[in-house]
Design goal:
four-stranded antiparallel β-sheet, binds zinc ion, 2 domains, alpha+beta, HIT family, subunit A, ten-stranded antiparallel β-sheet, single chain
Length: 334
């Protein structure tokens, strides 16, 4: 049985999950990732025809009589809402059953699709499904935070090539997420403004790290980017919660995200990347000091001992250079 355990000194939690079983795996190498990807694979659990190989379906969107997007429970997750949330002492340590929820959003029936190659209307549907699921999961009992992330390519840690995104919902807000929230609250107490609104305004004013913007979103490489070509997407209007994004802002979001990913693919040649969606904890959707955003980190290098030991990243490409190169790649064919 899996469980949460807390590091007594740092208050960080880990999930100890010895019984997860063998997870499906499509590909092992970078070379395979850059080769020709078929539109359909018999042995892929996410391809049409293999629906019974996935766990319970939670939602699907249909187009022309067949599914376009499917959401299923993550059957390899260590988390379950059947478990208890109660913390238990174990000597001086603290642990708890692995309460939580995990699911997978299968973003297209076509095995070879990527977010960068989806038609805008399909990408908008994907973003709408993210919103529906975050909103639904936020209503589940005892959930404190909903985390959405996408691992693309072997260097980003994914085992399946079929386009998909994962959601993990937890009763615990991890310290590395809580910490920036607290700093944002302090900034609000000092200046009376949302630190993210201030940051977006300053990036737009300075322009040198901007990659793209439309009426509703700003896309830029942040001033203190930790890695080469790290890109962030922020709504220009203050909004703490992704699921409070107005309906009319989903098309511009698809435009901003699609533009960023296509530029990244064109410039870096189909890179592995991690995409994270950071949104407010459950119950803090209307606070004035938090602001949802997306971050895309291409996996150009693996953080090494220096980064692990110091917590200070060494970024070998200045964000001004990254942004200039990405701007040049906006609209370029892959
Ligand atoms: Zn597939
Ligand atoms: Zn804000």
């Amino acid at each position: 049985m899996s469980e949460f355990r807390q590091n007594l000194a740092t208050k960080e939690w880990v999930i100890i999950a010895p019984d997860r079983g063998a997870r499906p795996r499509d590909y092992a190498s970078e070379a395979e990732h850059n080769g020709d990807v078929p539109g359909h694979r018999e042995d892929c659990p996410f391809c049409p025809g293999n629906e019974e190989k996935t766990a319970e379906e939670l939602l699907h969107l249909e187009r022309d009589g067949s599914w376009l997007i499917r959401v299923v429970e993550n059957k390899f997750s260590a988390l379950s809402t059947e478990h208890s949330v109660a913390r238990r002492e174990y000597g001086r340590f603290l642990k708890s059953d692995s309460y939580g929820h995990a699911e997978v959003i299968i973003e297209s029936p076509r095995h070879c699709d990527t977010l960068a190659t989806l038609p805008p209307a399909h990408l908008e549907d994907v973003l709408r499904v993210y919103r529906m699921r975050i909103s639904e999961i936020s209503m589940m009992k005892n959930i404190a935070i909903v985390m959405l992330f996408r691992n693309y390519g072997p260097r980003a840690g994914t085992s399946l090539e079929h386009p998909h995104t994962q959601i993990i919902a937890s009763p615990i807000i991890p310290p590395h997420i809580r910490d920036p929230f607290q700093k944002a609250a302090l900034h609000y107490d000092s200046w009376g403004s949302c630190v993210y609104c201030d940051m977006v305004e300053e990036e737009i004013r300075q322009q040198e790290r901007m990659v793209y913007e439309n009426d509703a979103y700003a896309v830029f490489c942040p001033f203190a980017a930790r890695t080469p070509y790290e890109v962030r997407i922020y709504p220009k209007e203050h909004n703490a919660s992704y699921f409070w994004t107005p309906k009319e802002e989903m098309a511009p979001l698809a435009d901003a995200l699609g533009t960023a990913l296509r530029a990244m693919h064109a410039l870096l040649g189909n890179p592995s990347y991690n995409l994270l969606l950071r949104t407010s904890p459950v119950g803090d959707e209307d606070v004035r000091y938090l602001h949802w955003y997306m971050v895309i980190v291409p996996r150009m290098s693996t953080p090494a001992g220096f980064e692990m030991g110091s917590g200070i990243y060494i970024n070998s490409v200045a964000p001004e250079q990254s942004a200039e190169a990405l701007r040049g790649a906006v609209g370029r064919r892959q």
